[in-house]
Amino acid sequence: MARRPESARPTYKIGSFGALGRALSHRDAQLFFGASLISWTGLWVHRIAVSWLAWEMTRSALWVGMAAFSDLAPAVVFSPIAGAVADRMDRVRLTMLSQAVIACEAALVAGMVASGHISIGLLLALEAMSGTAASFSQPARQSLMPGLVPRTDLPAAVACNSLCYNVARFIGPAIAGPLIALGGVVPAVLLNCLAYVIACATMPLLRVEAAQRRGHASEGSVWAEAIAGFRYAGRHPGIGPLLLFAAIAAVLMRGVQEILPPFIERLFLRGPDGLALLTACIGVGALIAGLWVANRGRMAGATALAVGAVGVQAVATVGFVATGAFPFALLCAAVMGGAGSVHGISTQTLVQNAADPAMRGRVLSLWGLITRACPALGALALGSLGEVFGLRLPTILAMGAALLVLAWGLRRLSAMRGVLEERREAPAAAR
To answer: Membrane spanning segments where (predicted)?
Structure first.
């Protein structure tokens, strides 16, 4: 296909306040993003509560890493299948069912903690159940976005989705710290249960076209369609390299944010209040950076942002673990959150822009696999190494490896940019 001149390429406003305002002016978008903000706030409260509970029960960075791993790792097995399921069944119903399972899991955790019947093994099993449900929820929810807003507002909706997540990452810890300090883990986990019940109740209110509720009629087995999703992404000259880059970077860098309690207590001698403050700073940085990405108002340059943000995050993480000064650590945490937000919003927007609509659920399930399974693997590795070598050295070595990955991404930048930033039909061989 001939390359169109610069002036003829479509212009996507991915984030002036006008574009965000237009995206949020639609009734269904208001319901969808309002429910997202509520559920993700509950999720962050729950994550902090479970992380702190695992630390209190074991005093082991390894077990805290295992708690994060149990929640996030099911994506390795289930995300590809979930993407195929999301492309062939009613996405609204699939989202409702998965959210209901998450609410039930939170109720079970709270009940067992309150009754004194919780153990670290049972906690890990329950978190794995919640992680499995979340693996199905993610591609189903995100595949609904083109049915909530007009095509011209889709990039702004993608940015808004990420902004909701990062607003929740600020609000959740701000609630979790005082709540855990005053009432313990149980009220915090019950809050997550309530949040997901509310989110589940809003889904039937959405008025989504039938064509957007379901990707396509069944064409074969779920396994065959899941494999087709892998094949499509792997052969795509932009999506494949970008997702591979994001996956390796997530394994190396995101583990730090998944096991913060050992860092808080061992490096900075702080308790739940310090954990909440640190996590809130990550959220503030993510929110500010997310608004900046949204306000750029163009797709051009998004690939460079997705790649370059990894370098910023690696340097900030080295600063975070190298210092014993908590105020400086808070500043580094804000930069970590900001760089992660730039990388995540840019990557997801590029993938949404470049993916074939019939493959959207499966491609987004791979992004979900990266955002859930790769941090879990990183958390498990970092927690294990932290028990032997301390937390600083393994983290610094991981950030050095991340900078090597950055160099690889920069070499591929030009080739990825050409196919990701312009809407193009996928090659026939990739379908």
So the answer is: 31-55, 61-85, 106-126, 179-206, 239-256, 276-294, 391-410
5: in domain: no
Average pLDDT over residues 111-124: 94
Q: What angle do CA 278, 161, 298 make, to 5 degrees?
A: 105
Q: Are 304 and 24 in contact (CB under 8 A)?
A: no
Decide if 21 contacts 84 (C-beta within 8 A).
no
The reported pTM is: 0.73
Say if CB 104 and CB 134 are below 8 A apart.
no
End-to-end, the C-alpha distance of the chain in Å comes to 16
Q: Residue 305 sits in which domain range?
A: 13-425
Please list, in sequence order, all residues whose beta carbon lies within 8 angstroms of the beta carbon of residue 243, skipping any fewer than 6 positions away: 233, 347, 351, 366, 367, 370
Amino acid 17: pLDDT: 55
Q: For residues 19 and 278, which has the higher predicted lDDT (pLDDT)? A: 278
Q: 272-295 vs 326-354: helix axis angle to the nearest 10?
A: 40
Residue 237 lies in a domain: yes
Do the domain assignments include residue 1? no
Total domains, the chain = 1
State the Cα torsion 400-256-395-324 to the nearest 10°. 120
Assigned domain for 220 exists? yes
**Calculated CA dihedral for residues 231, 233, 237, 243, nearest 10 degrees:** -140
To which residue do tokens 């574009």 refer? 19
Buried b (16+ CB within 10 A) or exposed e, 183-199: ebbbbbbbbbbebbbbb
Question: Is residue 429 classed exposed, middle or buried when 0-12, 13-18 and 19+ CB atoms within 10 A define those classes?
Answer: exposed
Contact 153, 294 (CB under 8 A): no
